[in-house]
Amino acid sequence: MDIERAQLTLFTELAEIARTLGSPHRLMLLQHVAQGARSVERLAELTGLSMANASQHLQHLKRSNLVATERDGKRVLYSIASGPINEVLGALTRLAEHQRAEIQSVISDSLTQRDRLEGISREELLERLRESSVTLLDVRPREEFEMGHLPGAINIPAEVLEEHLSMLPQDHEVVAYCRGPHCVLSTSAVDTLRQNGIKARLLDTGFPEWKAAGLTIETGA
């Protein structure tokens, strides 16, 4: 009976987390706070929610220990809580890809493109960084870059990359990354670089996974 009670307690906790995550708006909010700490005002703007709705969803996430808060003067900033939350989001994405044909059709072109682009693992990238034999390119928006990025990375947002290719070395391999393994910004960036004669590869993860692994990051411009 004790075992049954313990199992019920465990699955009750899992069900509560599942209920909290059962909202597209909360999943969107989690994706944004995974990039760095943000205020409710900025999160409302990014997700298209009203301030009241964004605040309500964030409180649900906080009660389930999925986001944490900190004070910055009079503002309250929300960030991803400790634990394998990025891994949970990644697992949900993979499950959705497997089960839902309409989601698969949306991302299939991107995944097919990623398959034909040679990637680089986190371990290999760390070795290349130690050798100073690679240039890191962060193609996320400037705001996300300034909140945190891989050491020594250059920030050129994907939408303006073609206009700023001169900022990149022509004789040095470039490794592009963005928000995670399913972020199409880096895929598009590598295609653009290669079309312009620059040797380029994808990082097979993104900034949230790098940060979650406890690796060194930098902040600011």
Automatic annotation (TrEMBL):
Q: Which SMART domains match?
A: HTH_ARSR (SM00418), RHOD (SM00450)
Database matches in PROSITE patterns: HTH_ARSR_2, RHODANESE_1, RHODANESE_3
Question: What domain of life?
Answer: Bacteria
Rhodanese domain residues: 130-219
Per the UniProt record, one Pfam family is Rhodanese
Single GO term (MF):
DNA-binding transcription factor activity
> Start and end of every HTH arsR-type domain?
6-100
Q: What is this protein called?
A: ArsR family transcriptional regulator
